[in-house]
Design brief:
The protein is mainly alpha-helical and 189 residues long. Strands 1-4 form a two-stranded antiparallel sheet. Helix 1 runs antiparallel to helix 2 and helix 4 runs antiparallel to helix 6. The longest helix has 26 residues.
Length: 189
């Protein structure tokens, strides 16, 4: 059995299980889109915070918009496949921000899901969205892609994208010698 480590980088800011459960379980379509976007924003904040040197941060304080942060993240090495999926999710969220009657469009969600599936997995295998089950906080509450509606499909895709973002970020931090860990006891499963 392998050794376990505790990661001290700020990955918990976007891999927050409570926030992820709220994203999956929310019944409100606007709430689902916004919760996902907040997690994606946190991923970009964490990545850029890890990439930008302390003495350079003052030059990046003007990054107010998602597209700006995404552009800089790509310039620092974020894979285009992850960026494409993040941009598609942002486009869906923007639809809700500009139309109070907006709903998830099945074709738009399918396109987003395809982009999520195309994003890289470097450290451990993450199944395609359609093959994944999400066990929400209530015991026995299993959420599956394609089983309920477009909102649920979006939520499943968004959670998978968050997992892929974490997977890639941990790999990137490790490659650059910036992954901060300490030994940890085996988790209780």
């Amino acid at each position: 059995m392998g050794e376990y480590v505790e990661i001290h980088n700020n990955i918990i800011k976007f891999m927050d299980t409570k926030a992820i459960n709220k994203l999956i379980l929310t019944e409100d379509e606007i709430g689902c889109a916004l919760r996902a976007q907040l997690l994606f924003e946190q991923f970009l904040f964490v990545y850029l915070d890890e990439r930008i040197e302390a003495n350079q941060k003052r030059f990046f304080q003007g990054l107010k918009y998602f597209d700006q942060r995404l552009m800089v993240a790509v310039a620092f090495g974020l894979p285009i496949e992850l960026a494409d999926a993040l941009k598609a999710a942002n486009k869906i969220r923007n639809g809700f921000g500009h139309d109070p009657d907006a709903q998830f469009q099945p074709e738009q969600v399918k396109r987003f899901t395809g982009l999520v599936n195309a994003a890289p997995c470097l450290l451990f295998k993450i199944s395609n969205v359609e093959e994944t089950e999400f066990h929400a906080e209530e015991k026995g509450n299993i959420i599956r892609y394609g089983a309920i509606d477009a909102k649920t499909d979006f939520a499943c895709s968004a959670v998978t994208l968050i997992q892929k973002c974490a997977n890639w970020l941990i790999s990137d931090l490790h490659k650059r010698g910036a992954l901060r860990t300490t030994p940890a006891p085996s988790p209780f499963i």
